[in-house]
Amino acid sequence: MKHIVNTQAEYNAAYQASLDDPEKFWRDFAEKEFTWHKKWDNVLNYTMSPEAGKLGVKWFEGAKLNITENCIDRHLEKRGEQTAIIFEANNPNEKPLHITYRELAKNVNKTANMLKANGAKKGDRICLYMPMTPELAYAVLACARIGAVHSVVFAGFSAKSLSDRIMDAKCNIVITADGGYRGSKITPLKDITDEALQSCDCVQKVIVLNRTNSKIPMVYGRDVWWQDEFAKASDVCPAEVMDAEDMLFILYTSGSTGKPKGMVHTCGGYMVYANYSFRNVFQYQEGDIYWCTADIGWITGHSYIVYGPLSAGATTVMFEGVPSYPDMGRFWEVVQKHKVNIFYTAPTAIRSLATCDMSLVTKHDLSSLKTLGTVGEPINLEAWEWYDEHIGKKNCPIVDTWWQTETGGIMISSLAGVTKDIPTYATLPLPGIQPCLMDENGVELPDGAQEGRLCIKHPWPSMARTIYGDHQRYADTYFSTFSGKYFTGDGAKRDAEGNYRITGRVDDIVIVSGHNLGTAEIENVINEHPNVAESAVVGYPHDVKGNSIYAYVTMKTQDGLTQDSEQVEKEIKNLVAKTLGPICKPEKIQFTSELPKTRSGKIMRRILRKVAADEFENLGDISTLLNPECVEEVVRGACSRG
Ligand code: PRX
User: Does any domain span residue 387?
Assistant: First the structure.
């Protein structure tokens, strides 16, 4: 049986083998494909109990490894001179870099020594708040090299989001840059970091990459320049030997309470699954140029720019810019320039590029492309067809990859050119992944065509092991809704052949332009506005972004407060943009004198979601509400708001 399958029959055989004996399946793959200092005592040890005290999953317990030896060192003999990373800068006139595996090794080692010289030790949490330059990849790998835990925070997040994440993980070092190029703008990363650090007392060192030559203040004794420290560091740094279950990284994702969840991934299982899923889904062949357009600030960048491709000895493109700069043809220009073979992006990017002048596509030679992929949210049929016709020229398989920050790697997807792709369906689980659908009463639906809540029945190597510092929340969020199963928070449909179509979140998370936003987090900020008594945030369908944010707000009516709703609306939008970042800004705000509530006082979001989506009929049973009369006002308000 082959683990990296190339035909439908091989897929079937691998899937069956993974069901028959999951431990053997993963043991054989792990044994064959990686460099270990010591093999495991146990392949899998787990209890998926809803009780936090019992819940735990361990893969390859007792094994010793370092993931960077698997991503770098072991390739040096055969592919030292092969390009590992192609760096395409924000500015198309800046010369791209082709970084070989040998150069990558040196740069990662230098970065690792630079970290050590600045006090980093095994087990420390290090926050990376950086632009998409090669130094971000070096920093990620350097942390892994010395056994420090990286926590990458997307460089579009605000000071408050950054400081929350730094404090939650108790990071002692932050790596940032003076600024980050984003299209025609520069994000003042160091200024934002300084603001964030005013409320963090755990940070001792800030390493600042000079990227934009911006004038920035340096704090004496705390701040050092990357370039100075890097120049001093030796390019030899032995890899720290890690336990398979040691933490590799923390990555924050939105939760349904206001506080983001620090998902913890560990060294061994994550490595095995990132490599396995990358090779199977994209069918990467020797010499292919692979480009994932995500930012390393998201899980997609962790698994499918850095760890998956590099562990497979691939050539991976890192793009610093945005799809719209200098014009909306940039992606296609980059595909042509680097002769990209495999292109992986988000539906929201496809939808926005599909609305542009077609000459921005047709003037570029896209004939190098052989596989396309999407990730992050459901792709609608129109966008899928546009991608297929205009980018793939009806000649490239499209892999619609369903997964999550929590899953670490792709769970449900067609395998390029191997299993069938079906528009708008993620299709089949990868061998080793056992999805199921549950009904609202917690009963597993039988095989065949069904619709329900998507769960995973059996552990897989790259599942998040806990929420940093809050194992109870991990148990409550993922294992208690459907006891003993991992609950994804997504709804899905399955056809008679077993293909899955993800229908979207069924909890209080809204996906806007591929970004997970927790509605509670946005509500908390809105509620800080002095005029606001209460608010409820929901998502509603948006043509390009997939979803957009709709906020229902009840104002205080006290004397002395302005009741100018236009003014308050503006202030609320600014407050959210400033506190959480512009992506979280509500697109629509509706003022209402009351919010519909259940008798226990819970806001009935089901109704608010329908109203926001203009589905005024079939609001469902409102008789159980504490205040059913307010629904009429909410509907009237939405209609007049337009
Ligand atoms: O709702 C699903 C949606 O994105 C959520 C996970 O978001 P995040 O942790 O930020 O990870 C995104 C990148 C892996 C899922 O719960 N989602 C992700 N991929 C798809 C998707 N929905 C439909 N189809 C997909 N291919």
Answer: yes
| Ligand 1 lined by 454 (C-beta under 6 Å) | no
The residue whose CA has the least distance to atom 11 of ligand 1 is: 404
Q: How far is the CA of 492 from the centre of ligand 1 (A)?
A: 12
Percent of the chain with pLDDT over 70: 100
Rounded distance, CA 372 to CA 445, Å? Answer: 32
571 located within any domain: yes
CATH number of domain containing 372: 3.40.50.980
Q: 524 in a domain, yes or no?
A: yes
Structure tokens at 103: 């150069």
- pLDDT (0 to 100) of residue 642: 63
Lowest mean pLDDT among 37-41, 336-340, 556-560: 556-560
Return d(Cα 383, Cα 360) in angstroms, integer: 17
Q: Is residue 605 part of a domain?
A: yes
Q: How many Å lie between the centroid of ligand 1 and the Cα of residue 209? A: 31
- Whether the model clears a pTM of 0.90, i.e. scores above it, the answer is yes
Residue after which a domain boundary falls, among 374, 393, 412: 393
Q: Which of ligand 1's atoms lies nearest the C-alpha of 410? A: 14
Q: Whose CA is nearest to atom 13 of ligand 1?
A: 376
Of 364, 393, 422, the last residue of a domain is 393
Model pLDDT for residues 385-425, shown as the tens digit of each residue: 999 999 999 999 999 999 999 999 999 999 999 999 999 99
